[in-house]
Hints:
By secondary structure, the chain is an alpha/beta fold. It has helices at 3-12, 28-36, 46-52, 63-76, 93-105, 126-142, 169-182, 195-204, 220-226, 236-253; strands at 20-22, 42-43, 81-84, 110-114, 148-152, 186-188, 209-212, 230-232. Strands 1-8-7-6-5-4-3-2 form an 8-stranded parallel beta sheet.
Amino acid sequence: MNQSEKAKAFGALHRxxxxxxxxxxxxxxxxxxxxxxxxxxxxxxxxxxxAAHGYADGExxxxxxxxxxxxxxxxxxxxxxSVDFEGAYSAEPEGAAANxxxxxxxxxxxxxxxxxxxxxxxxxxxxxxxxRIRAIRAxxxxxxxxxxxxxxxxxFLAESDLSKHAGLVDEAIERGKAYAAAGGSGxxxxxxxxxxxxxxxxxxxxxxxxxxxxTGAPDVKTLAKLGVGRVSYxxxxxxxxxxKLKQEAAAIYSLL
Length: 256
């Protein structure tokens, strides 16, 4: 498949009630391993890619390193690749679009794009974020790529008190509708794990909803029944592998 066909195929994998499952990767080696395991598409996690290079999350990883990582992945695995691009390394719509274009150039067919002000605290007003999405969509359309913009809201992830999540649902739904109208392809609500709230957002969202697996989250089969269209694993795979690596290394060194 060419890049446009990969983007189209990736979008088609997002089916309400039959979600695409993305076990997040962080380099070419993990991309190949997950592809060999049977994945239909690939997605990086920003936390994992940053940590693998010795950086903290939050756009601390140089963008050039992230672009090169994406390039190395598309060079070895012929599956659709979505890149967790955080805030696109720019607050301005034009800058965000120009930066995403660099990922398009190396073969990526989608991004996660969040509405939190990276490094600044708080969220962008919905219309401001929508303007940024519109700019990215216009850029991708100009290249003839049905690019998948997974529009992420950080409302739930920013609120650690789960009892307050119900009070954020209406705003999340409104943001999702605004992002859809601006050209978003999916709606990502990391941090949300309550089944009833997930179901409510899925019922109201014009876009396929992405849930991130974390402690307390429903399993994939339950998420499918709730209407979810995409399930991702965030930094979980990286943390799991690093823990296994440490345990194996510790076992070896304990014998010396």
